Amino acid sequence: MYLSHAVRTIRDDPMAEESVDLVVTLEADTELSETFDDEVTAIGGEVVADLQFSAVHVRLPETAVADLCALDGIDRIETAETLRLVGDEATEPASDTERPATDERETDTTRPTDRNREQ
C-alpha cells in the first residue's frame, strides 16, 4: 500500500484534537461497499464522498489514521488537500491572469510539455 509522506507523518505522530481529510483508493478487486463505510465508521471516521477510480474521500481523527492504514483492500492513501479532489473543498484553478507569479506550482494546471514551450 502506498502512503503519501504526509499520511505517514500523521500516522506516526498524530495530533489528538485534529482531524484529516484523506483520499483512499481501494485495490482493483475491492468494490466500494457499505462494509468499507462501516469499517471507517468503526474507527471514528466517515466516508464523505465516493470519487472516481475506486477512491473515496474520508474524514477522520488523526489518531485513527493508523487504524485506517491497517484495513484490508486499500491500495493508496493520500491527503485530500494535496490532491484537490474533494468536491466543494476543491478550488478551481486560477487563470493565467489571476495566478500570482510567486506561487505558480500551487495553481499551475498546464502539462510539463506545455510549460516548457512557454519558457
UniProtKB/TrEMBL annotation:
<dbReference type="InterPro" id="IPR058957">
    <property type="entry name" value="Peptidase_inhib_put_dom"/>
</dbReference>
<dbReference type="Pfam" id="PF26036">
    <property type="entry name" value="Peptidase_inhib_put"/>
</dbReference>
<protein>
    <recommendedName>
        <fullName>Putative peptidase inhibitor domain-containing protein</fullName>
    </recommendedName>
</protein>
<feature type="domain" description="Putative peptidase inhibitor">
    <location>
        <begin position="1"/>
        <end position="84"/>
    </location>
</feature>
<dbReference type="InterPro" id="IPR037045">
    <property type="entry name" value="S8pro/Inhibitor_I9_sf"/>
</dbReference>
<feature type="region of interest" description="Disordered">
    <location>
        <begin position="84"/>
        <end position="119"/>
    </location>
</feature>
<feature type="compositionally biased region" description="Basic and acidic residues">
    <location>
        <begin position="96"/>
        <end position="119"/>
    </location>
</feature>
